[in-house]
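Data availability (excerpt). The following record was deposited with the supplementary files.
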Amino acid sequence: SDTCVHAPTVRVRPLTCTETRRGDQRVVHSLGDGTVHVSAARHDVTFGFSAVFDAGASQEAVFEGSGMRQLVELAIDGFSCTVFAFGQTGSGKTYTLMGPLAQSETRPAAPGLLGLMQRSFACLLEQSQSCGSGLALSVSYLEIYNEQVRDLLSPGPPCALPLRWSKTRGFYVENQLNVDFESLEAIADLLLQGSQRRRTSAHTLNRHSSRSHALLTIHVRSRA
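Predicted structure:
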């Protein structure tokens, strides 16, 4: 039977500049040992998780403490692994996953600010290179917006692709582009290229908010 391992972790983001200027106070604090305390006007409660990262936690601390390295190792061993970021708009999902929004091919983020994705890529490449030429890596990047699936890596204007099902493949996206990569620079460029094509709009909490769900898939194939 299939085995599912669920390890929820929480990251508390610091106050934004706008929140600090208007005098807002932090009401969420890490107590250590995987617990987080919420203390507000009508709420005073403690929650438990597999891991909790307070506002001062670094990107590296989140990567190492959330089990991401173990997930990469499991993926190479043949397990299907998923990282799902969930939270309110403006809660810091994009920063945790990808690092600063301002980065581009000409202005990459400082190494210490790189997110879980880039760190996972580096770990995966390191592990695959230690296996010699036995592994082949490729990536696909999809956006789901208004119940339509769009390929973020295909050249030209993104267009809706049909979702299909077959007995051998299960659910799959027809005509989805799958791109091989062998270096950290190559996968980082593909990630930025796809992310810049996502649908965004501004609102009060985030001037560059993603208006869709994105699914980046790394395919690890054994040549043996």
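Summary of structural features: The domain at 58-222 is CATH 3.40.850.10 (Kinesin).
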